[in-house]
């Protein structure tokens, strides 16, 4: 049996697939931020949670508009993920600067990142302050996925996505 030793609390937090959460302010400015605290939280109705630190620019946008898009991130999106996570939309139009292709959401008034293999449009139904983050609970209202990933029943084959690994 391997030897065990005490570890830092924070190192025990192992977030799963990173996301880029995109949003649009009431005045029409698009933004996106890197999120690593996210999870499914209900299958009926389908809902997810995304954690955003209150000091982040996107926090106030999601809080005010009540919508967001959770965009899954592939390895090919690595540079965009780290840039969007380390620069503020208060200071620049990050998506335009990077040339990230976007489209309007099908249901929510927020941008969808077209390089993402799966984009999940959500309406905020509530939130929970957990300490450093506020977890926004988003009811899934539309899912857009690359056609090659979707089978005849509409199910997404996640095994075909090369997710970004942190």
Task: Please explain how this structure is put together.
With 166 residues, this protein is mostly beta strands. It has a single domain (18-160), classed as Roll (Pnp Oxidase, Chain A). Helix content is 14%, strand content 37%. It is built from 3 helices and 9 strands, in the order ββββαβααββββ. It has a 7-stranded antiparallel β-sheet with strand order 2-1-5-8-9-4-3. Strands 6-7 form a two-stranded antiparallel sheet. The chain is globular, with a radius of gyration of 16 Å. The mean pLDDT is 94.
DSSP helix fraction: 10-25%
Point out poorly predicted stretches. none
**Average pLDDT value?**
94
Q: What Rg is obtained from the alpha carbons, in whole angstroms?
A: 16 Å
CATH topology: Pnp Oxidase, Chain A
Give the name of the CATH superfamily: Electron Transport, Fmn-binding Protein, Chain A
Shape: globular
What is the first-to-last residue Cα distance?
28 Å
Instruction: Give the count of structural domains.
Output: 1
Q: What is the CATH architecture assignment?
A: Roll
For the secondary structure, the number of strands is: 9
The arrangement of helices and strands along the chain is EEEEHEHHEEEE
Largest sheet, spatial ordering of strands:
2-1-5-8-9-4-3
How much of the sequence lies in strands comes to 35-45%
